[in-house]
Design a protein that fits this description.
Number of helices: 7
Number of strands: 12
CATH topology: Rossmann fold
Strand order of the largest sheet: 7-6-5-8-9-11-10-12
Largest sheet: 8 strands, mixed
Shape: globular
Distance between the termini: 33 Å
CATH class: Alpha Beta
Radius of gyration: 17 Å
Oligomer: single chain
Strand content: 25-35%
Structural class: alpha/beta
Helix content: 25-40%
Length: 249
């Protein structure tokens, strides 16, 4: 990997790296990987493909993504002829996403905190994706019961919310805590997880999600497709554990 650009932002140092052999690009913020894509902007992160597959099954056409980074999910959604809107607190992310990650001009970009944006936004969406992190944790105000009630107000009647959650290990109850808070706004709450894997991403979802199946790879990137396919095969729905929500202790 070689460094393409380094930017000092209000939210930490952003580094953009590129692989000399494959052309793959990484968006790193404060030492944490925020986006990983091939040279066409297709994500190389399995959890992005998992969310994309779930959105496809849900037939979501108008999607709000809270948390931008390199904008890879929005790029893939637009290529699937969906309407995508990104909200990110860091204005630098949008310029970098367009410069290095092929973010289409048609993606609507708002510089704002996700919760503040929803308070002022009058639109409704088929799906809202929460992929906002401070380090490896979702900011507290974007995981509260009140926040998810606000999200519900901005969903169409058949809409759903999908949250990317970093899980340290099987004893980390953070994903279950997110599910518990979603349960205040929806009766149908599910967790898609790869139990037994340390340092993994789980998808917590609510709304009209009872019919969804474990997703498969729908858009193959130029590299790492087999690895992503294997990672997706390890994902399974599990019951969320109401008695074990230590929020990542």
């Amino acid at each position: 990997m070689h460094l393409l650009e380094e930017i000092e932002s209000d939210y930490g140092t952003i580094n953009i790296f590129q692989s000399r052999s494959t052309g793959a690009v990484i968006y790193e913020l404060g030492g944490c990987n925020q986006s990983f894509a091939d040279s066409n902007g297709t994500s190389l992160a399995p959890y992005i493909h998992a969310i994309f597959g779930l959105l496809s099954q849900a037939k979501s056409r108008n999607i709000l993504v809270i948390g931008g980074g390199g904008g890879t999910l929005a790029t893939m959604l637009v290529r699937a002829r969906c309407k995508a809107t990104i909200v990110d607190v860091n204005p630098a992310s949008f310029a970098l996403a367009r410069r290095y990650f092929a973010l289409p001009e048609s993606v609507i970009c708002h510089t704002a905190d996700g919760k503040s944006f929803l308070h002022s936004d009058t639109n409704v969406y088929d799906a809202i994706v929460l992929d906002a992190f401070h380090g490896n944790r979702i900011p507290s105000h974007l995981q509260s019961p009140r926040f998810f009630e606000l999200v519900r107000e901005h969903l169409t009647p058949g809409g759903a919310v999908f949250a990317n959650v970093h899980v340290k290990h099987d004893f980390d109850g953070f994903a279950d805590g997110i599910a518990k808070n979603m349960r205040t706004a929806w009766t149908d709450v599910r967790v898609l997880d790869a139990e037994g894997v340390c340092g993994r991403n789980a998808i917590v979802m609510a709304g009209r999600v009872s019919h969804l199946r474990a997703p498969q790879l729908l858009i193959s990137p130029k590299t790492n497709a087999t690895t992503i396919d294997d990672d997706l095969a390890h994902l399974n729905f599990r019951a969320w554990k109401a008695s074990r929500w230590d929020f990542g202790g």
